[in-house]
Amino acid sequence: MALAAARRLLLHAGSRLGRREAVDGARRFANKRVLVETEGPAGVAVMKLRNPPVNSLSLECLTEFTISLEKLENDKSIRGVILTSECPGIFSAGLDLLEMYGRNPAHYAEYWKNVQELWLRLYTSNMILVSAINGASPAGGCLLALCCDYRVMADNPKYTIGLNESLLGIVAPFWFKDMYVNTIGHREAERALQLGTLFSPAEALKVGVVDEVVPEDQVHSKARSVMTKWLAIPDHSRQLTKNMMRKATADSLIKQREADIQNFTSFISKDSIQKSLHMYLEKLKQKKG
Ligand SMILES: CCCC/C=C/CC(=O)SCCNC(=O)CCNC(=O)[C@H](O)C(C)(C)COP(=O)(O)OP(=O)(O)OC[C@H]1O[C@@H](n2cnc3c(N)ncnc32)[C@H](O)[C@@H]1OP(=O)(O)O
Fold first, then answer.
1. Which residue's alpha carbon is at the smallest distance from atom 31 of ligand 1?
2. Where does the pLDDT of residue 50 fall: very low under 50, low under 70, confident under 90, or very high at 90 and above?
3. Residue 135 falls within a domain, yes or no?
4. 203 is catalytic
């Protein structure tokens, strides 16, 4: 209920959290955790995640992200979105571990419903989505990039990308897996999912997790030039083709959303899984000290 109310509030431009501004002819709207600017090629928005320190996809971040996408989908002048990050060195650390640890089943169910919602909206978007991956992109961060039509990654060996869930002692859901298989093929996905591989940019390019690797200072200009190429294709034929390629994968979740929420909730509530997450969080903390 509270989230639905927040959603209504945010959808209204000019509300306290969602504001629309005119800056040098470019339009922008900003929530706390997502900034959207319409600059560069006509009809293109740049969406920047800004949920420091690591752009983890908290419930609030997911909600703001979904609402921003919804706004762009409803704006008929927007044909393409470049998805990137405002947090230095991090594209997104993926799902927020603190939303999946030490909470109650109702919270897990609510969180997962919002993860599904963002994924469905991104994966089935009619807009052209290009990701400018300017930092680390594990698990849910990789998922965001995989939803895009084209992925450009910064050539920095410190940045890695992949579905690393198995390293955390958790299992990527079937729709994460389906999208991985669609992108890199069954054999590579099978190996990478079991090992929880986090690929360097060069490896990610080789296996097909990303489409292009460029020097870090060229990620945005490359994403823009890719977008220009895709904008030259008539929308109706490109959209119908995208739908043809992605519908079966999206439908398999749509048909069993409730069951998928139940699966997630009972899996993540298990003591053994909570223990694994606890250990992983401790490892992240120790890395610092
Ligand atoms: C059926 C179940 C399926 C569920 C599917 C889940 C998919 C997921 O997305 S699970 C999330 C997987 N994510 C990760 O494994 C990433 C973990 N994080 C990292 O590897 C690193 O943080 C980083 C490479 C992203 C960044 O490294 P950096 O050295 O810059 O920062 P840190 O000092 O490690 O982190 C800063 C701060 O942020 C906290 N944090 C990091 N990741 C997450 C996260 N995903 N959720 C929540 N919080 C996170 C980290 O603990 C630090 O917190 P403190 O400052 O409080 O210590």
1. 54
2. very high
3. yes
4. no
182 is catalytic: no
Count: domains in the chain: 1
User: Ligand 1 within 6 A of 101 CB?
Assistant: no
Whether residue 98 has its Cβ less than 6 Å from ligand 1: yes
Supply the pLDDT for residue 25: 53
Full residue range of the structural domain in which residue 138 is found: 27-287
Single out the catalytic residue among 37, 60, 64, 165.
Answer: 165
Residue 154 belongs to a domain with what CATH number? 3.90.226.10
Residue 264 in domain:
yes
Q: Is 43 a catalytic residue?
A: no
Residue 182 lies in a domain: yes
To the query of whether residue 164 is one of the catalytic residues in this protein, the response is yes
Is pLDDT of 138 > 90?
yes
Residues 6+ apart with CB under 8 A from 215: 154, 155
What's the gap in Å between 285 CA and the centre of ligand 1? 10
**Marked catalytic residue, from 18, 114, 164, 253:** 164
The protein residue whose alpha carbon is closest to atom 17 in ligand 1 is 93
Residue 5 is assigned to a structural domain of this protein: no
ipTM surpasses cut 0.85: yes
pLDDT band at 28 (very low <50, low <70, confident <90, very high): confident
